[in-house]
Amino acid sequence: MIFGARIRQAREMALMTQAELARETQIAQAHLSRAERDSYDLGHDRLAIVAAYLEFPLDFFTTAPIAEFGGRPVHFRAQAAMRMKQADQATRTGEVVVEAVIRMEQHLEGPCLQLPDPQTDPLAAAAAVRRTLSLRPADPAIGLPILLEHAGVTVLGLPLRAQRRDAFSLWVDDRPVLALLDTDAGDRQLWSTAHELGHLLLHRNIPASKDIEASADEFAMHLLLPIDALVREMPASPTMSDFAMLKRRWGVSIAALIRMARRLERITQEQYTSLFKQMSARGERLRERTFIPAIKPRGLRAMAELTYGPSPAPGLAADNNWSVLFAEQVLDRHARVEDLPVRTSMPSVRPNNVVAINVARKSGRRK
C-alpha cells in the first residue's frame, strides 16, 4: 500500500508544489493530489519515478507514518517572516526525523520528562525551569539544548539552513518536541530554544498569534537573563564593549542585552535608539560581530550510536527508509561527545555531557 502522507512529506521536504512535482515527473497533478489523499493508487512504476525524483527509497512510501504533526499547533520562531513552503518543509522534516527517535526509543531507555507543570505566567515558568535544570541564579543557560535533553525533551537538529526561520516546537501526545534549524549563530539559536520552550510550557494547544509570540519572548528573557543577576552585572550607561562582554557571558545577542538595559533603566530612550543605530551602521542588526558558537543537540546521535554503532548512518537510513545521505545530514546536526561544552557548574549535566540513555536495552534487544 502507498501512503499518501509519505508522498506529501517527501514533496514538501523538497520545497515542491504538486504542480511542480507533476511537471517534473510527467504524472498528472490530479493523480498526485488524489494519491496524497489516499484515493488513487499510483502503481509501482509511477511511484518509482516519484521516489527517484524526491530521493527516497520506495519503502519509505509504503511504510505508514507514525508521527504526523497535522492538527497540532506548531509554533515557529520568526513565523511571520516564513514562507508557507518553508514552514511546510520544516514541519515535514521534523515528522520524519522524530519517527527515527520514536523507533530507537522502542529499544532504549531515555531520560524521564522533568519539565515543570504548564504555566500561564512567563516569569513563574522561567523560574520553575531554571530550578528544574539546576541553574543557579547567576548561571547562564548557554548549554540549554543539552540541558533540555537531560530533562526529557526531544530536541532535534534538522538539516535545514536557518534563514528567516530558526526553530519550531509542539507536543506529540505527551512528548515535547523542539526542533532547531541549522545556524552557526549561537546567540540566535539559544534565544530560539528558550522561546520555543516557552511555547511548550505556556501555549500547549493554543494556536499561533502575536500575543503568544510576545509571551514566549518574555519567558526567554527571564530564562536566559535573570533580572537579579543582570541588575548586579550590568553597569550604568553600558557601552557596546560592555554589551559584548555580557554577550560572551550570557550567550544572548547584544540586541537583547540593549533591550534589557533599557528595561533596567541603565540607558535612556535616546541611548537605546543610538545604540541600535550604531549596530545598523556596523551591519550588526542581522549578524553581530561578537561570535557565540551554536550548540548541537546530542540525543539522536547518542541513541543512533548505541543502536547502530560508531558509524550509524547506514543503519539509521535502513531502519527509517531514508537515503544514507539524508541520514548523514541528520546526524551531522547532532553533536558527537567531543563537540559538547563542559559545564562543570551544572549538576544536571553529566561529566561527559552525554544524554543519559540507559545502555541496558528494553526487551526485544537489537542484534
UniProtKB/TrEMBL annotation:
Segments forming domain HTH cro/C1-type: 7-61
UniProt-listed SUPFAM superfamilies: lambda repressor-like DNA-binding domains (SSF47413)
Lineage, uppermost ranks: Bacteria, Bacillati, Actinomycetota, Actinomycetes, Mycobacteriales
SMART domains: HTH_XRE
Family statement drawn from the similarity comment of this UniProt entry: Belongs to the short-chain fatty acyl-CoA assimilation regulator (ScfR) family.
Protein name (database record): Helix-turn-helix protein
Record-linked InterPro entries: Cro/C1-type_HTH, IrrE_HExxH, Lambda_DNA-bd_dom_sf, Rad_response_metalloprotease
CDD domains assigned: HTH_XRE
Source organism per UniProt: Mycolicibacterium obuense
Record-linked PANTHER family: ANTITOXIN HIGA1 (PTHR43236), BLL7220 PROTEIN (PTHR43236:SF1)
A molecular function GO annotation: DNA binding
